[in-house]
């Protein structure tokens, strides 16, 4: 089939959108006027500009039967949301995601809103589907996985011509559901909803969440896989991202020798999400020397797929560097949970570090090998990128030299970004490997709270005349119950730190402001999520909404909200809070 890939073919143009906006009724004009001062377009749900590039440009499954099965030669299967509902309720919604989609905030007051976002009353204009993908789970090829419970409604083009895919997670079975029910529980949905928004506000690339609704039905889950299943309230999150393509979206077709489909899917992704790579012209900035001799040069301008994979590697490296700096552990870094846009995706048993422990894994299933523990994430990112590059290489989109170069770029980019981030976290004038490594060792020995330590560190004054016995005063609240030997170790570290600060051009006040802009006061600790979940399971959604608000400004001191920045209580470390299973 001849396809037109011009921007016009990708959906309504910006002109078409503004024309249709002009044609809205007088009533709508009035609605818009209220917020014109903020330059905001306010659409009703029925007025969203749907576009369906994925369905239009890629081959789909001709069968619509929902029986679990292998879906061959197709990127998706058409499937409608089917979760049963009984008086579904809106738990929370994100104002900034609504704005991204040009949605009028007043839409969230509609009585039928929860019906719509539970999938029970379909929105006009959608073309729903489940995506086919595979993945390496815990290092082993797991074959076809796919959207087993996430159903994409389609893509929306906003007034800025941005493309946003909307997806309902927990909306019922698809052919990719395997043995499972296609549903999600309130507990895991609250975690995904809050963490998507918290990560975004921390400045970490992530899929977003528009809203969260309960289904009013119960779902049976064995939370600890210990033979004690429980009925839990069901829920659905509406997730939003420019694309939900994963490394596994490419792997599945390559493992089936369906290289034509790998090619088509690579073209699709470049066309819509990396359009600057479509017409690369020869330029020195995209040639790289990888070793000795003439054929050691990798010229990315001669192969857009290699240039693309380098960008995917760099986006991934940059993402993982940000996770390490903020203290986030994803928990399930299988290749089906790796976004080709470098977004944090598929929030399951994730966790932010409380007491610093490099071997912390939030995933009970990961305990035996700790493959996905905090300290392993940079290496796992590299392993995953190697799988992605190998996939493109098997489809002959890139050669061996380019494959090696992509993996190498991941490593270099990660180190560059990570070093820059920790340097800024400490407010140092330049990277100091020894100082940082000594700090992390000390933090691990004394199980120091990762977030609060860095926030307090900005109170240290760069004055070499401070008497030794006062050096630890600013850190008192995080250096608890330590004996003389450990106090000496910390005093010695703070001395070296102050020495290093002497070379800084910044005043103490300027350094504090700079450090506080990268060291959050508020993070979404697992125990905070749990408190919100406990209340929500009893029908009170206020704590979810409050947490969402607090996490909107994680770097600001928020008077009255200090309790959300406190050290976790003892119960925070019990299984089910600091550590979870994938059962969700
Ligand atoms: P995850 O651990 O959430 O990344 O999921 C791994 C795979 O299992 C994906 O293919 C999911 O779609 C699928 N999956 C997880 N939970 C369910 C469920 N309750 N019903 C159907 N499929 C599921
Ligand atoms: Mg997943």
């Amino acid at each position: 089939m001849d396809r037109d890939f011009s921007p016009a073919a990708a959906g309504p143009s910006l002109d078409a959108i503004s024309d249709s906006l002009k044609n809205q009724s007088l009533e709508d004009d009035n609605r818009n006027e209220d917020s014109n001062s903020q330059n905001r377009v306010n659409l009703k749900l029925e007025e969203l500009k749907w576009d369906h590039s994925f369905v239009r440009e890629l081959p789909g499954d001709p069968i619509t039967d929902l029986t679990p099965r292998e879906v061959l030669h197709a990127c998706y299967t058409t499937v409608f949301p089917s979760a049963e509902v009984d008086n579904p309720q809106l738990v929370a919604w994100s104002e900034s995601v609504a704005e991204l989609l040009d949605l009028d905030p007043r839409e969230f007051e509609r009585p039928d809103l929860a019906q719509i976002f539970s999938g029970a009353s379909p929105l006009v204009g959608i073309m729903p589907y489940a995506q086919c993908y595979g993945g390496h789970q815990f290092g082993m090829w797991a074959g076809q996985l796919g959207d087993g419970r996430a159903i994409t409604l389609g893509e929306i083009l906003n007034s800025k011509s941005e493309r946003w895919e909307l997806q309902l997670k927990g909306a019922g079975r698809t052919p990719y559901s395997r043995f499972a029910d296609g549903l999600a529980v309130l507990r895991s949905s609250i975690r995904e909803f809050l963490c998507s928004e918290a990560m975004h506000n921390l400045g970490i690339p992530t899929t977003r969440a528009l809203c969260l609704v309960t289904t009013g039905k119960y779902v049976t889950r064995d939370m600890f896989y210990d033979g004690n299943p429980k009925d839990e309230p069901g829920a659905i999150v509406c997730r939003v991202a420019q694309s939900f393509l994963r490394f596994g979206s490419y792997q599945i077709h390559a493992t089936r020798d369906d290289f034509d489909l790998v090619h088509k899917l690579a073209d699709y992704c470049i066309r819509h999400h990396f359009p600057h790579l479509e017409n690369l012209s020869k330029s020195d900035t995209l040639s790289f020397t990888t070793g000795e001799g003439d054929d050691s040069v990798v010229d990315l301008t001669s192969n857009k797929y290699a240039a693309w994979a380098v960008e995917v590697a760099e986006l991934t490296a940059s993402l993982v560097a940000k996770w390490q700096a903020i203290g986030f552990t994803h928990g399930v870094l299988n290749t089906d949970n790796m976004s080709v846009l470098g977004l944090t995706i598929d929030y399951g048993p994730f966790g932010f570090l409380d007491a610093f422990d490099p071997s912390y894994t939030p995933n009970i299933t990961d305990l035996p090998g700790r493959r996905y523990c905090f300290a392993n994430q940079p290496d796992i990112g590299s392993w995953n990128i190697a799988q992605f590059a190998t996939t493109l290489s098997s489809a002959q989109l890139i050669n061996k030299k380019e494959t090696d170069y992509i993996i190498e770029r991941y490593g270099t980019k990660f180190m560059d970004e990570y070093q820059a981030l920790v340097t800024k976290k400490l407010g140092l004038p330049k990277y100091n490997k020894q100082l940082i490594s000594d700090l992390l060792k000390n933090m691990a020995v004394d199980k120091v709270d990762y977030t609060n330590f860095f926030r307090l560190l900005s109170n240290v004054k760069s004055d070499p005349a401070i008497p030794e016995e006062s050096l630890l005063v600013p850190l008192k609240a995080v250096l608890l119950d330590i004996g003389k030997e450990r106090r000496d170790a910390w005093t010695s570290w703070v001395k070296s730190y102050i020495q290093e600060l002497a070379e800084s051009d910044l005043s103490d006040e300027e350094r504090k402001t700079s450090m506080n802009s990268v060291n959050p006061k508020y993070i979404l600790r697992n125990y905070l999520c749990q408190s919100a979940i406990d209340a929500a399971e009893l029908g009170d959604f206020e704590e979810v909404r409050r947490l969402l608000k607090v996490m909107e400004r994680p770097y600001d001191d928020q008077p009255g909200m200090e309790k959300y920045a406190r050290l976790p209580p003892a119960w925070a470390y019990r299984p089910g809070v600091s550590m979870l299973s994938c059962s969700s």
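Residues 336-337, 346 surround magnesium ion (ligand 2) (CB under 6 Å). The first helix runs from residue 14 to 22.
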